[in-house]
Design goal:
281 residues; five-stranded mixed β-sheet; 10 helices
């Protein structure tokens, strides 16, 4: 009879138990990759105030035992990665973006935007109509936009036909770049959403930039999900937003950024906006 040393038996038993614990341990939940460009107050490069969309997604993930990892990158790059299925969630997309990328869309909107124009105070230009803007561009006015953004069919068509007079900024903080260029006179008009522009202007000690009108109506924004993500997981985010809204946590998050629930935003057309005042947040 072959004798097996007791220590060897003990070591064998330990290794067997370790192997067994690994074999029966449930697979670790996948960390969801969430990407966006910096677009305060939606998504910010700030640990204290990371943006209300980031806080909303974090709350929903925490309540559902999901792991998420946020990455800031230029929007054009984020969209390219989404096309290749290399990200799980994109923040603050229009329905048009989501359809083009063949992503899954949240049923509920997660914020929204307006097409708002800004100029320096010394500039008398005010938005009147698409035709008026078109004439201004043909008169050598330079319009600042953000690379990769959709502004609606009418504005998108106008921008495509006037590329020599449109400067689309890119990078992780394109709006900050555009505001600096506008302040320096390197742009004549800036096109973005009032929430983002006013938030950035509120952080500046002095600014000569003023609101110059709006085009179109309030546009809802959605979360775009990879086509590889389960429908059950996508539904968790819609359910999570409803829970945050009902519990009052959504209002608490938005209050940090001096905002109110976008559900309360009535559709607003440029005809109903006074062009000589700053738009309300």
């Amino acid at each position: 009879m072959i004798k097996v040393p007791i220590k060897l038996l003990q070591l064998s038993l330990i290794f067997f138990l370790l192997w067994l614990s690994i074999a029966i341990k449930p697979a670790q939940a996948k960390t969801l990759t969430v990407v966006s460009d910096e677009w305060c107050p939606y998504i910010c490069d700030d640990r204290v105030l990371p943006g209300f969309l980031v806080e909303i997604v974090n709350e929903i993930a925490r309540d559902n035992d999901l792991k998420v990892k946020f990455t800031l990158m230029p929007l054009a790059r984020a969209l390219n990665l989404a096309k290749k299925g290399r990200v799980d969630i994109l923040l603050a997309l229009t329905s048009q973006h989501i359809a083009e990328l063949q992503l899954q869309q949240s049923q509920l909107s997660f914020g929204g935007l307006y097409n708002d124009f800004y100029v320096r105070a010394i500039n008398p230009w005010r938005f009147q109509s698409i035709a008026h803007l078109s004439a201004s561009l043909k008169d050598n006015v330079i319009l600042g936009t953000i690379n990769g953004y959709h502004y609606g069919e009418q504005l998108n068509q106008l921008l495509k036909s006037n590329t020599d007079h449109v400067f689309p900024a890119s990078g992780n903080s394109p709006l900050e770049k555009q505001l600096k260029m506008l302040q320096m006179g390197r742009l004549d008009i800036l096109l973005d959403s009032r929430l983002t522009v006013q938030y950035q202007l509120s952080k500046l000690p002095k600014s000569s930039i003023i609101y110059a009108g709006s085009q179109g109506e309030f546009t809802p924004l959605f979360l775009g999900f990879s086509s590889l993500l389960s429908k059950e997981k996508v539904q968790l985010f819609d359910n999570g937003l409803m829970t945050l809204r009902q519990s009052g946590k959504l209002d608490d998050i938005l209050a940090k950024y001096a905002l109110t629930d976008w559900q309360q935003q009535a559709p607003t057309s440029s005809r109903n906006i006074s062009l000589n005042r700053q738009p309300p947040l």
